[in-house]
Amino acid sequence: MGYNNDHGIDLIKSKSNSEYVYIIDERTIWFIDHILGVAFPTPVNFAGKENGLYDSGLSYKEFADYLDFQNYLEEITGGQEVSLESSVNPDTFQETNRIIKWVTNYAL
């Protein structure tokens, strides 16, 4: 994330402290928290009648696939190291509990 030491402000980060991202290819919705420096998939449906992101009125960004999302994270973190952590269910070999972490200027 770009940072201006003279004025102590972020240059690239969006105006809000958090945002939602919809990855079309995976059909998943991720929540990004800019203050904590984490991103994780949510249980929210995109077009669900009761808790759908589309009808909620909340703003969100769309990306065609995970690679585009990864490029966006690299852009908002200023190219710093971003780590993906996940667990694998030993019975089904399915990946679970994915979370992405990076160090923010707020943590420094």
Secondary-structure blueprint:
Layout: E1 3-4, E2 9-10, E3 18-23, E4 28-33, E5 38-41, H1 53-56, E6 60-63, H2 66-76, E7 83-88, E8 95-101
Parallel strand pairs: 3-6
Antiparallel strand pairs: 1-2, 3-4, 4-5, 5-8, 7-8
Q: Radius of gyration, Cα only, in angstroms?
A: 15 Å
Form type: globular
Structural class: alpha+beta
Note the run of SSEs as H and E: EEEEEHEHEE
Count of folded domains: 1
N/C terminus separation:
13 Å
Task: Give the integer mean of the pLDDT values.
Answer: 79
Q: Tell me the number of strands.
A: 8
Beta-strand proportion: 25-35%
Major beta-sheet overview: 6 strands, mixed
Strands of the largest sheet, in order across it? 6-3-4-5-8-7
Total DSSP helices: 2
Binned, the helix content reads 10-25%
Q: Which regions are unreliable across 5 or more consecutive residues at pLDDT < 50?
A: 1-14
